[in-house]
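Hello forum,

I keep getting stuck at the same step: I have a sequence, I want structure tokens, and every attempt I make locally crashes halfway through. Rather than fight my setup again tonight, could one of you with a working pipeline run this one for me? It's a single chain of 336 residues.
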Amino acid sequence: MKKYSLKDIATLSGVSIATVSRVINDNGRFSEETRQKVLSVIEETGYKMNYNAKSLRMNRSFTIGILVPDISNYFFSDVVQKIEEILFDKGYSTIICNTARNQDKETAYLKMLEGKGVDGLIVISGAEAFDFESSSSDKHIPYICIDREPKNKKETVFISSNHYQGAFEAAEELINAGCRQPVIAMHSRKSTSAKERYNGFKDALKKNNISFSPKNNLININPYEADFCNLIDTFLLARPDVDGIFCINDSIALEMMLVLHQLNKRIPEDIKVIGFDDTPAAKYVYPSLSSVKQDTDKIVTVAVENLLNLIQYPNETDKLLIIPVSLTSRESTKKP
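Reply #2:
Ran it on my machine without issues. Output:
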């Protein structure tokens, strides 16, 4: 089978080599007719781009690194999958690094990604502010942060859902359904998103003249601990007036609902429950779970656009982009 060159594709398409290059890289000006003509010739000939030569010529690897704290988390896996699909369509491969919320593992992955010469980096969530100083390479790697506040805001783009808005609306969903002693259940207040959700919940209570104190309105939990049921039981026995629980994510909410059933608490009659992330399980559990939905399609589109722009124009940083969320009401917050 004949091995076609870029020049061959240009000749068969009746355009210049530069035009073929622009079409392949989807960069520059050309008509839709020209694009279709070139792509048709590429398909007919089975032309394959020599990516090694292309990388050397352009001093780029066409590879993007993705740091994610927990790939088993629905929100994270959804975002990563959508990012990978868009980048693949744009000619980039991805290296997905699951840090398991371990700082040492994250540092090791960063050094590995630098060594592989990635063109850019997408950092998704995490407990601490992200600090990326390239110590082993003279090449600055453009990066953007999703739901994780960067330590140096001037060197990146920070993209975040409106966690404050989501938590505020979740609290008001409970209050409007009749709750007078709602509480928030969370495992950490370190991450950017957790802090915003905590503050949104508190402010919603304040707006509705409901007092808030960490002692009475906050459940510090780890839903995966063996004594989770006893912890909730003890908390509710000490605070029998609790009638609504905002869980900081759906994983906690689903576990909370299971425990409440075990404690013979009726949902939503005795205690109403609302989560965050609107995972697929939320609409299938009984009763169905009300939850705050993050717009992952918008987050991903904005993230990829901004990262590829940073790769081309490294100085266009210092941006904060907030993506709206929406609330889905279901049976778990239904009024009597």
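Residues 109 and 269 are 48 Å apart (CA to CA). If your local run keeps crashing, start a new thread with the error log.
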